[in-house]
Amino acid sequence: MEQNEESHRVPDRITLGGPADIVAAVPYILGYHPSDSLVVLGLRDDPPRLNTAFCRESAPADTDADHTAAAESIAETLRGDECAAALVVGYGPESDVAPQVRAVRGAADREGVPVREALRVADGRYWSYVCESAECCPPEGVGYDPSASTVAATAVANGLSAWPSLSSLRDHLAPVGGTRRARMRAATRTAEERGADLLGDRPPRGRDAYGPRFRAEGVRAVREAVAAVNRDAPPQDPGRLAWLGVVLGCIRVRDEAWTLIGRESAEAHQRLWREVLRHVEPAYRPAPGSLLAVSAWARQDAALADAALERVYEVDPDYSMAVLVHRALRAGVPWQGYPPESLQAVWPLESP
């Protein structure tokens, strides 16, 4: 997963009737309100619907070559996804947005995917790069109130939500620091020693050869943590958090936690695994980050799931559970429990 360019599966419940609807819909398509970004929506004709979306974060150091490379990658994907047309929305000042829009329009045109609308959004107004009529698209832009849009109301009614910004989403999962981090380092060393004692003279060969004693203690720790969060008392003690991080290194223990996530319990699991993810040492992030992504997926919060997977990939880009969940999100697979049957055939569970 690249950090500044990500594809998003687009919900099928939003109907776009014009520029104002497009601007109102984007936050619910991405799951957050974008800023200093370029958003590209791919459309199919048969049946008429939004198919996929890209959001590329702008950076001050971006060059024309960067814009061209990104545009070509997006255009190739639009063609590969059999999109018949595209919509482009840039957020930020004209000097930043215009070169990116030009690059995407040119690349998409070369791939045979025409851009039907291209907009710039800033300071509560939008401008069209396609419409030349001063009556509907005046030089000073068109003011809009996304909260008053029927698109926003429809999105919310269908269970969609939007974080205030991408940075707020990332801050929500930021690792703890300061004294708390120092206590976690010490607690992790203690937890690792405890795990080593359970393994005895037989250290694991491979990722899940932990033995029955270790697995039993790990499953017990997971179930106790889930029970605690269901009582609205998530674990906060560094020792318990560090121990959860260590035992989740056992695939069987992690999968036990996965099986406990359901639609009704997903909110509690989301709180639990966020707490663990933010506290554990980096090496132990992949399992709780992936469990958090599953919990968010069950609650239709793809943006949070993506952000959790981003934390995982910072440590282990090949962590199999994260890759599985990422594929499901990109394919638009609806939450079906553990794990989606449609994915089991192509991605078998790891053996104990």
From TrEMBL:
Top-rank lineage group of the source organism = Bacteria
Concerning InterPro entries, the annotation shows: DUF4192
Stated name of the protein: DUF4192 domain-containing protein
Q: Which organism is it from?
A: Streptomonospora salina
